[in-house]
Design brief:
218 residues, alpha+beta, Glutaredoxin, Glutathione S-transferase Yfyf (Class Pi), Chain A, domain 2, 2 domains, 4-stranded mixed β-sheet, 9 helices
């Protein structure tokens, strides 16, 4: 299985966690989203994904785009350990938490959206950070309230085992910190992420652990 990814992509981050959590061997195919490389716009990559977005997983003759679709595919083809609970009602709750991040928060801070703000609307970095902070803040406010009821142990978004929702919140918290969003008002979310980020599957998937990540500053 080959994963096309970029170290700082939160959508790819989710998939890396899933692959690690399930113990699935995978090959790295790095896609540099930064100018001047802009590898997501090359004809070779567009042949894989006409949207020009990562992640992409190639599994034999099967090519899959969209992080949640990829993770659901991994769940169905490699069901152990599970990322979705047993009952239909519980699975719906986990998907709801995951989609609150993947559909309502993350797209508004996507690279192409931020580049449009910079290039077409002439927003400076303070304005871009304010934009990102507005939508992360609104989303986190709601998730902070929800997780108080859905978490079973204060260390997971739902119940007391790793689920799809956990794979979404950790990369989004990374994005929040990257854009200097104040996360102090979200102690429940911070506690969940602190626990998860220390787990091996999450730690190995972290942006700073990827081969295309720049070396840490001294």
């Amino acid at each position: 299985m080959k994963l096309y990814h970029y170290y700082r992509s939160s959508a790819a981050y989710r998939v890396r966690i899933a692959l690690n959590f399930k113990g699935i061997p995978w090959q790295t195919a790095l896609v540099d989203l930064r100018a001047p490389a802009n590898a997501q716009h090359t004809p070779q990559f567009r042949a894989l994904n006409p949207q020009g977005l990562i992640p992409v997983v190639a599994d034999g003759d099967t090519t899959i785009t969209q992080s949640l679709a990829i993770i659901e595919y991994l769940e169905e083809t490699h069901p152990q350990p599970p990322l979705l609970p047993g009952s239909a009602a519980d699975r719906a709750q986990v998907r709801s938490l995951a989609l609150a991040v993947a559909c309502d928060i993350h797209p508004l801070g996507n690279l192409r959206v931020l580049n449009y703000l910079r290039s077409s609307l002439h927003a400076d970095e303070n304005a871009v950070n304010a934009w990102v902070g507005e939508w992360i803040g609104l989303g986190f406010q709601a998730l902070e309230q929800r997780v108080k009821h859905t978490s079973g142990d204060g260390r997971h978004m739902f119940g007391s085992e790793v689920t799809l929702a956990d794979l979404c919140i950790v990369p989004q918290m990374y994005n929040a910190r990257r854009y200097r969003v104040d996360v102090e008002p979200y102690p429940a979310l911070r506690a969940v992420c602190a626990h998860l980020e220390a787990l091996p599957a999450f730690a190995r998937a972290a942006p700073q652990a990827q081969p295309d990540a720049p070396p840490p500053r001294p």
